[in-house]
Amino acid sequence: MHDLKLHDLRCFDAVASEGSFQAAALVLSRTHPSVFAAVARLEEQLGLVLLDRSGYRVSLTEEGRLFHSRARLALRELEHLQSYAGQLASGEETVLRVVMGDICPRPRILGLLSRFFAGRTRTRLHLEYEAISGPVERLMDAEADLIFHRANPPDPRLERIDLYEVNFVPVVAPGFLPFHDIREITPEAMRPFTQCVIRDTARRSSPENFFVIDGAHSCSVPDHIMKKELILHGLAWGHLPEWLIEDELRNGRLISIAGRQIPGRTETVAAVRRRDRPHGPVAEALWTYLETQERDAP
Fold this sequence. Notes:
alpha/beta; D-Maltodextrin-Binding Protein, domain 2; 3 domains; single chain; LysR_HTH_N; transcription; Arc Repressor Mutant, subunit A; seven-stranded mixed β-sheet; 11 strands
């Protein structure tokens, strides 16, 4: 069998899809005889009868139907390959690596990304989740192009766009504590009770502690969803982002114990990237898009 010609495959696909040689010729901007000859040549090379020409309209034989399903996959893959080559030639990234940190208001961040990538179908979003110092570690180790996480202190290697303020509230389930005045609870009084904390995903953990009471028994979880479940079931207490527990605070399934001794905390969620590394066209477009979101924020 000689090598199949791409032109012949495309002509066959057009005839099979359009139902006639004439219609296929119009779609391909070819003449009727050239399309007819291309399909005949393909059948001869394959040693198969692909089309039944006995009726008013041509139709696929059983062999033609099976071959067409595979041929369409091959043609589609070739189109993707050509698009990929054009993307490489233009310098446009094929993959953008983004890490979302544990403090992020996920619905809002995912909404931003969804709207941006809806118009960037040639670039695949590779999205991962990291906690505590994990996002910054991934960025500094060149394993991420952009992170959404807490706005760290100024670093000459980093630049950021502040996006959202996230309030963290210390909460317990009803009946978890034996105290009457929970607003005046001290850290010392909370030491006997299990505190739930987020597990640091960094390979080189940061010495920073967020809301952790020294000497208290603690349990660790991978994210705030799991942390919320433990607290709701009365297995621990801890700080949770207010956006995640608004309904539970309203209906009394969770109780805030924020006060002078155990305050809440406000974190700024920012988009952060390396200043000292080059960024491709899509990464630059995303950065500009996020700057626009910052300006438009109420």
